[in-house]
Amino acid sequence: MRFILTLLCCFALSTLHAEDQKPTKPKPKPQKVYTGIYLMNVYDLDINGYSFYADFYIWFRWKGKLDPTKIEFVNSIEKWGVTETMFHDTAKLLPDGYYYNGMRFEGRFYHSFQLQDFPVDYHPLDIRIESVEYSADSLVYVPDTSKTLLRKDFKIPGWEIKKAEIITHDNAYQTNFGEPTGPPTFSNFTFALTIGRPLSYFLLKLLLPLLVMLIASLMGLFIHPEHIDARISLPIGGLLSCVFLQQSYSTALPDVGYMVLMDRIYLVAYFLISVILLRIMMGSNLLSTTNREADLAKVWAIDRRRAYQLMVFIVLTISILILIR
Fold first, then answer.
1. For the chain, percent of residues with pLDDT exceeding 70
2. Rounded to whole angstroms, what are the CA distances from 8 to 5, 19, 53?
């Protein structure tokens, strides 16, 4: 009896082991969709409204039964105003066995402009698409082999084109949208156009007027100390001019809760003008009536030395702020 039980146990164990060794069915690979884009125009760039209009062609090549043209532009806004024109009513079968279709799309897109580095800021304007029906385990978008992403004479007035690229990745949502299947993951196709302001805008339109005001304020230290009214009027005038200059560029920016690079530069300018005013007042108080001529010469020599030191200070400080932005 004991021998029979031992045989039965061995048979059961071998059966379980054989079931464990059965090959599992391989998971089907997702359908690849070769996707390309050709940007025609970007206009109505609205930093205050965090949006821009884009006009472009987008196309798809694929093999399989799933239709990849049913897409959602993830960051599209004002969907009532979009224009969407398909290339073909139904997918076109190419000689190499691939299906092909595409569309021309025009609409407004959302972009969160980060302005900490204004006016030497860069912005990757992005257009993001995902499939409406199929998750990443069924369908994935991969970049097409086309390297031309922009129209030949493409320009955005007031901006320089830095780079255009295509990025694909899986986008995992943090909600299941009420379904019991778990958080979905979709293949995300992103076209990013990086733009930046011309360096001349920063140097000539913003920095140069500020430097002129600061130099004019420093000139107050080169005026003879006995002309106290003329000495103090220059930094006071420079202070008022700096306030108006700062307001002129601030009105073109949205109301953000942080300081941009130009704000930090103006803080240094305000500090410099305050130091000049303080030095002029201290020099005036040092003048005595008993040895006035000697005191005047001494104060004037110190003020001119301080002026050169402050010039070096403002150049170094602005350079450091730009480099560490």
1. 90
2. 5, 17, 75
